[in-house]
Queue: 3 jobs
Job 1
Amino acid sequence: MHHTSLLTRAARGLAVLTVLAFAVSGCGAGAGAGAGTPTSTSASHTATGEQVPESAQPAERGPAPEGSDPEDAETRASSASLSGLTIAVDPGHNGDNGANPATIRESVPDGRGGTKDCNTVGTESTDGYPEHRFAWEAAEVLVDALEEADASVVLSRADDNGVGPCVDERGTFADDADALVSLHANGTEDHSARGFHVIAAPAGGRADEQVADVSEALGTALAASLEDAGLTRSPAYDDLVVRDDLATLNNASVPAIMVEAGEMRNAEDARMLQSEKGQQRIARAIVDALAVTLVR
């Protein structure tokens, strides 16, 4: 992959286009989540960002989930073109966050006049597959899919062996991009809970009303695209979730969404998130949603 890290950004492509009239945090750890107020959901599950034990060992990537697929997302070629656009990809958390508690507990701007912890460890599956590894693996697949669609890509972190970056920088690094996608997975205590949800922030952080509208349109399009790809939408959320407490989204000046791609503690979701096929589905859905929202 020929993508650009945080320290070597590609030049910004086309300006963000106005979206058509229609048109990712439960783990919250990598986005500085707190006791937010989702405005479009009546979630009954507890959305957590508990720190995983530092001794937890990542599991190997597992098999694809069983069952028939609506489409084979590993082989399906998308007709979407993102030529001229730069997409910022933020894989949540990082592999060495757990070994550096003092660093990730430092206070940083939350984008709305307050502060948040720099970062957190994230959640993990019951068999030890950590969210930070899912986010990194899914980001690698997404970068390939974006480049196949002729987009330029910038990443908030260069590998899965470091610390941070802090949640404010995970938003501001996208300033020269056309959109930001932050990749996470949820950590609900109830192991029977499953499904994805997508999050956008309202205006009032670094984004104005027009940018916030495009963020919401992008999030709505992504939720539909993920369902089309065969992923299960979380029944705890009606539609797009709008929250003003996520520092990554609040610090973004461009259209930005966070996807909680599934429930890490649900066995079926965890298998999907850990599989190459599941990661391919997520990546293709993101590319399709970006094309629907940003390209006329």
Job 2
Amino acid sequence: MSILVLLLVSFLIKPGISQLNNTQNNINTPIRSFCGRNPPINLPSFINNRNSTFTEIRRQLSGNGVFYARAQSLSEGDSVFGLAQCRNYLSTAQCVACLDAGVSELDNCITGNGAYIFFDNCFVSS
């Protein structure tokens, strides 16, 4: 009787499929992004602050076992706060590559402060 119940249950259960974690091919698939609508006061100052913020975040994520980093640059009136977080199964190189992909996407957001992008492997915000 118990064998019959096990067979019946095994036919009724649908197999589950886990999400691919992309650890082998390191594809950083964009999931969602947003460009802020608050225009910078001084565009060159904003770009310099954003670049120095992302440089500091990249430096922090280059350490082994670091999956979260934040930084800020506050000079000349256009403050930029940034952060990045990677999934903990990524290697350091994969985490930094995901950050770089996010930064290259956010470089297009010069119309306003407060941008972010979600990838399947990381999150980047400024």
Job 3
Amino acid sequence: MPQPFVDLTRLLLPVACPCGEPDVRWCGRCAERFAGPPVRTEHGAGRLDRLDGVPPLPVWALTAYTGPVRDVVVHWKDRGRADLDLLLTGALRRAARDVASWSLPALGAGGPFLFPPDDSAARAGGASRAGRRSFAGPAGSRGGPAEAVLAVVPVPTAGPARRRRARDPVRALAAAVARGLVDGGAPARSAPVLRRRATRDQVGLGARARGRNLASAVRAVRRLDGCVCMLVDDVVTSGATLAASEQALESAGADVLGAIVLAATPSPSDGPGRATTC
């Protein structure tokens, strides 16, 4: 495009990185913050501690939810910057590719986890809650074959927020994660099977208040017996939203391997050596 037209377009439709750098949708510095390998961050999300002997849900994040990262995510979710989809979905697709090898044992020959090829209920035998981290459990199905594939489940957005944004950005992340898992050799597909009723905004609430706010607010739309799921969200803070989603999926008969998020809010206990790569 000739430079005069470029200049006119920028005048009529100005664009800037959320950090303030003009004339780019995102700058190199902000993009770099989402370029690192995914790291395990569940240690900082206290609400993921189930207190039942099962280890906390593994959670991978690309970066810390601070400074420019917060600016990018807020602009993307709540200020109409759908043009940032390309940056964030691309980053999470790469992260999922790295996590794929960790999830593959759940999909091995004779593995228990099956995702239904249509909207009917899954009919495969699932693993017990206590054994889910080791992927142990009997296999088997009846009534025809099912496709062994990870169900990539976006954490649900409440209706009012979805209508205000005129879209559900976390679903875009889930679709990217499914593609990344496939890139890494793990069969997967997006499965938006959770719904969330309207609750008070989580912003500004402490860990306990977040948990109470989400109690019984998330549910699965159908039975998911024998399915294995990977949750996806944009940010993890206390872990209350992921915990509620995990509980809803398990109540529907599914098994949850872990979660992948863009960013994690640092906890006061964060320090060198706490995060581990996949």
